[in-house]
Amino acid sequence: MKRILVPCDGSESALRAVRHAVAVAGPAAAELQLIHVIEPMTPIALSEAFSAARLDERFPPQAAQALQPAIAILDQAGVGYTLHCRFGEPAPEIAAQAREAACDAIVMGTRGRERWRIS
């Protein structure tokens, strides 16, 4: 079984990547691994309550919110998946997750959410 890592920040570009990974994977040919990376300066409202179905309570609300649309796509397609949340700079954390999980491929959107701009 192939493992495909899909970084997901909740953006439309990331969701297109999830849909593409589903098409590539098929229902039984691969396991998808969704990852959301929280950057060091990203504020996390740990006191917020959330009830995202099938998300581990260890996930901050920000990660749950970003992953929920992708989870809905995977559940509808009947594709198996695991969820990951890491803290740090996205590129090194995505690469580290791919190595640690022995992923065969990474499928990701062309760009995620825009960074904050200070005018």
Instruction: Return the structural class.
Output: alpha/beta
Trace the largest sheet across and list its strands: 3-2-1-4
What is the straight-line distance between the termini?
48 Å
CATH topology: Rossmann fold
Query: What value does the Rg take, in angstroms?
Result: 14 Å
The sequence of SSEs as H and E is EHEHEHE
Reading off the top of the CATH hierarchy, the class is best stated as: Alpha Beta
Q: What kind of sheet is the major sheet?
A: 4 strands, parallel
Number of strands: 4
Q: What is the CATH superfamily classification?
A: HUPs
Low-confidence stretches: 44-54, 114-119
Summed up, the domain count is 1
How many helical stretches?
A: 3
Description:
With 119 residues, the protein is of the alpha/beta class. 39% of the residues lie in helices and 20% in strands. Helix 1 packs across helix 2. The termini are far apart.
Question: What descriptive keywords fit this protein?
Answer:
119 residues, alpha/beta, Rossmann fold, 3 helices, four-stranded parallel sheet
